[in-house]
Amino acid sequence: MKRNLHILLLLVLLPTLLSAQGQMAQERKIRFGFVLDGDTVPYYHLKEVRIIESGSLLTETEIRKNQKLIRNVKKMLPYAKIGKQRLDQLERQVADMPKKQRKEAIKAAEKTLLADYSDELKDCTISQGKVLLKLIDRETGRTSYVLVNELRGKLRAGVYQTFARLFGYNLKASYDPKNNKEDNLIERIVLSVERGKL
């Protein structure tokens, strides 16, 4: 009798157990992965996370003391981020193009960028321009001189650098928040803005 009860119980529960096992197998599907020594290793794309010290954000005293720089950074940061996005798009677009088509695409992108933002940026002050150059270096990891050199050539980069020096800019100045006091302050302002503290 016990044996029959076990068989009956098994027949009743078997479909439930099989469907649960099938669900578990579906839940464990790996969408991205690679095979390493016969094992499938899952691969996940994670967002970049910046770890900052609590002392990296600005204090109230620093905020009061650096109002002009904070205003300049807040005004120029969106342009630097847009520049980074457009540069990434352009680099993907021209990656496999022949040299002549690449030059034409870069010139067209430059014209579009000037048409979109030249009116807004004409009203910027010299100090805002200097901040923008620093923020572009921060976002792209390359100085403005290097970017012009890569995209438009060494001659054009030299002409732009000479012209910029007349107005007090330096396209070759790199962004170095670890060793440069002003760059460190700019970095802390950007972090404060990105975290919603300013």
- Tally of individual domains: 1
* Helix amount: 55-70%
Work out the strand percent.
under 5%
pLDDT averaged residue by residue = 79
Structural class: mainly alpha
Total number of beta strands: 2
Task: For the record, give the distance between the C-alpha atoms at the N and C termini, rounded to a whole number.
Answer: 77 Å
Overall shape: flat
Main beta-sheet strand count, sense and barrel state: 2 strands, antiparallel
Q: How is the largest sheet built, in terms of strand order? A: 1-2
Residue windows where pLDDT falls under 50 for at least 5 positions: none
Radius of gyration: 28 Å
Q: Please, how many helices?
A: 8
Order of helices and strands: HEEHHHHHHH
